[in-house]
Design a protein that fits this description.
Helix content is 34%, strand content 24%. The chain is built from 10 helices and 13 strands. The chain has a 7-stranded antiparallel beta sheet. It is globular and about 70 Å long.
């Protein structure tokens, strides 16, 4: 989410033309390898993969991943059988946390230093679920979600950002860690124009639940690919370590934000809004926690949809006598 009034502005057309799915680089905190699931050939590789896999470099492009890194690739393949209904997962290999995801015909394998991220287990997710399950109305759901998400990812400024029918945005709920309040500007009840989150970004949010930026001040790492990749092969939208657009980096710097996180809120199959989080310092998140936060966002979305339906039914019940009066008047007229 970007600020409306920034000291440095970027033309709207430039924002809409940004190749968000194929930026050509990844965030510095991680590395990425993209493999064709059918041929096992390495399609793309980030320039820093040698930090995580010995001898990894762009000479791996076009080669069989089973030959390039056989042990790790074998471990990953065990989780990607035809009967696997959830073709993703994570493991720790030689001090690196490895996340893998099968999407369409591509296998995304990404890495992060396991010692550099806070590892939170299933207990954090269970606590977050418990907080949401105990809510009784929409307001309590929103505020419980914000504090539960803080407990899960550790970010100190968390908001519920809702879209209207024209895709303008509004912050309808907000939580700021009182111990870190001096670092953040409150956005509660502020409205944002449709261009704040362009259409292609919304399309990405509708397809992929979680995105985050660990450190806007770090230098992106180039991503090398085979020549003549198809659009699907070049797409790195599903990867957590996907690089972010320079215009968005500038927005965040103007706001004094160093790390961001967002999770989609989906209602009736449509993007309803975002759970948006800011942090004033660099804040990498483990892949395990990112995966857990996706499940959290799905539960929150389901509860939001249910409570909205309950509120609608209750509203109709309260106005039932008035509706009956209108119906009788129409029948007599």
């Amino acid at each position: 989410m970007s600020e409306v009034n920034t000291s440095k502005t970027v033309p709207v057309q430039q924002c809409t033309d940004i190749p968000v799915l194929t930026p050509g680089y990844v965030q510095a905190m991680g590395a990425l390898i993209v493999v064709d699931k059918n041929t096992h050939k390495v399609l793309q590789i980030s320039a820093n993969c040698a930090d995580f896999l010995a001898s990894a470099d762009e000479t791996w492009l076009g080669r069989d991943a089973r030959e390039c890194f056989p042990q790790l690739y074998g471990q990953i393949s065990e989780h990607l059988t035809d009967n696997n209904t959830n073709p993703s997962g994570h493991l720790v290999d030689h001090g690196s946390e490895v996340h893998f995801l099968l999407a369409a015909d591509s296998l995304y394998i990404e890495f992060i230093n396991a010692a550099a991220v806070q590892q939170q287990g299933e207990s954090a997710l269970g606590s977050a679920f418990h907080q949401l399950a105990g809510t009784t109305d929409l307001d309590s759901l929103h505020h419980s979600a914000l504090q539960a998400l803080h407990g899960l990812i550790g970010y100190d400024h968390i908001m519920v950002y809702r879209f209207d029918e024209q895709w303008n945005g509004e912050v309808i709920a907000e939580w700021i860690n009182p111990e870190q309040a001096q670092h953040y500007t409150a956005y509660l009840n502020l409205h944002f124009p449709e261009r704040d989150i362009p259409e292609q970004a919304r399309d990405l949010y509708a397809k992929h639940w979680v995105r985050y930026t660990a450190d806007v001040h770090s230098t992106p790492v180039p991503l090398k690919g085979l020549p003549n990749l198809t659009a699907a092969q070049a797409n790195i939208g599903p990867a957590y370590v996907r690089g972010i657009a320079p215009s968005h980096v500038q927005y965040l710097k103007n706001m004094g934000v160093t790390a961001t996180y967002s999770a989609s809120i989906m209602v009736d199959g449509k993007l309803w809004g975002l759970l948006a989080a800011h942090h004033h310092s660099a804040k990498p998140i483990s892949f395990a926690v990112l995966d857990a936060s996706e499940e959290f966002a799905k539960l929150y979305s389901a509860l939001l949809s249910a409570k909205q339906q309950d509120a609608l039914v209750q509203g109709l019940q309260r106005h039932k006598p008035l509706l009956a009066t209108f119906a009788n008047a129409s029948a007599k007229g």
